[in-house]
Task: structure prediction
Amino acid sequence: MKITVKELTTVGPTIHSSFAALPYLRDKVGRGNLSRPILAYQSPSYIKIVGDIHRFEADQEAGKPTVPVYLIQDTESTLELIQLVIEYYSPMNLMDKALLTRAAIDLGVPRSILAEQIFPALELAPREKLIDQVLFLLKLPPSLQTFIIDKGLSLKRALIFQRAEKHLEWVERFIANLKIGINMTAEIIQNVWEMSKNDDVDFKTKAEEMGLWEMADTQYEDNRQAVLEIREKINQARFPSLNQAGVDLNETLEAAQLPDSMKIKWDPYFEQQGVQIAFHAKDEKDLEQSLEKLKSPAFKNIFKHI
Amino acid sequence: MKEPKITRIIVDQKVADQELVQRYIKNNPQAKVVQQNITEADKEAMFKQEATPAKREILLTEKQGHTVKQCPGTDRAYRCCNYHVINQTSNCPIDCTYCILQFYLNNPVTTVYANTEKLLTEVKDKIATQPKRFFRIGTGELSDSLAFDSSSEYSKDIVGYFAELPNVLLELKTKSNRIENLLELDHKGHTVISWSVNPQVIIDAEEHKAASLNERLEAMRFVQEKGYKIGFHFDPLLFHGEWKQSYPDLIRQLFEVVDPKNVAWISIGSLRFPPEMKEKVLEKFPKSKIMFAELIRGMDGKMRYPKPLRLEMYRTVYNSLRYYGGDDLFIYFCMESAEIWERVMGWSPESNEHLDHLFATSLYKQFPGLMQDEPQRIDYDNGIPLHHEKADIPGFNS
Result:
């Protein structure tokens, strides 16, 4: 491969390569403000711009007669060209990687080569089945693609959207209206997806059953309230036996009629045996009364539960 | 149950003259045989291959270092029974959704240690150091004990060997019905053939290449006729829509075939797995639903059903066992807390050593002649593991 720095004229039509969309989020690059030469490739009959067409066009519009390019000549293989593009645009965000994967496929790179030789350079695992997962990201609505970049999501994390593939508009509304982050988003999608699979119903039906579907369009003054409500709805659906155990224990505690000053705490997952008891006694009489309550059969019943 | 079809047999030159190797080759004429000097780098490369349904390779190699080890068990928050394991074979063709091996051994290579004599001599030497203890040693920790037996005929070596050892029971734990080789062996009462059991609805959904319940029942009938002791492992109990009915039904079916007097032990345990395993299971078995159940992180960091649910399941199974099998059955929990023992059975072992002693005492009483003297608690309290290391997994971390 030979690379030379050259001034490319901005006059006339421009031919672009398969890497047209690279880098992602091109709109953020200032017009007429090239910071470094762009990549161009010398094919037998014409010069193709490899990426950064927006930057080229910006300089064109700004009236610059030429732009500096790195002109690639005598490339031995597509693979070599791709490796160079990766190097040029690194560090790449996840959407850049998806765009490059698409470009590699368009250029005819076999899937096995793509996985084994290109993915490691993109810091992705060299597994063929990841190809379709990476390409899935390009099907996401723009707001979610931007979300992926803004939050710096890993591929694994971004693929949570796959589990709500037919309801991405709902996911967008959820994120936008409730201002939730990726962890909460993932928790919602994962739980609805799992419960829908478990009960053999579709995603939307399950989200409705769990009371989460309509939440996407509910206005909250305080986002923390929304998060609490989401967690409660998820726990109600996911942990029926734990919820029931909590209800039973609370009923037993109520029946024991403990003084208000007495606080009983327990492991919400019920894995730790027993309870923590804390109380305030203002005098000897108060202490005796509290101890009497603790000795009562009604209170001891709690140990049947935890 | 279908025999796993071996596609390639890789023979480490160091064990090429072993009888076990010749058996694998003789019993698998379809397999390509490769003999070479195997280095650690070779093994590492083999273990990095991804498992595929069509590919099953056997690596016959030499075990260096200790073979008999403690059962990995779990941490001290839960009771364990001081069981020992011989991991002569690592990797399993049965492909149960919930199996920890899916997580650790997702490659097509089954490692078999073929230097049988060294391995068995080690057992003999080690148990001889504590002659007053009665040990239980199994081969079903990192593989199914009998799934490869038609190829290896290993049961012929090991059952006969253990028959002559005074203070140990061999447990062959399986979900298969490959018992043909066992039927003519002189086991002298020193082998327990145990089955992991689940209702047929679970076998269909989660134990993909295992023998059906009816096949297992038939196999139980045969080995019982040949005087083998039998074990049952209700482990893992799996939550499903019909569990309240299907587990008692299963227990009734088992005791229609097996006489409780021949049952050496019965374990009960419920689904548990490291959290990282969930994604692997979802990826490999997209139709499985077991990962969607109500699961929490237990005190040992593993995912489990919440205690209220576990208690309900355990009580149902335990009460059915007592109902159909009687009060003399030796029933224990695998990796459960003393609290669970208390709440379900009304008592709990004081320690892992105490549980070990209770095993021995139960066997002494149930099977006269199995051991000469009544087991003494002090020998178990003062006992030491046959090897301090817990069982390892070839290929893991490679």
User: Anything to note?
Assistant: The beta strands of chain A are 2-9, 15-16, 38-42, 47-49, 66-73, 263-265, 276-278.
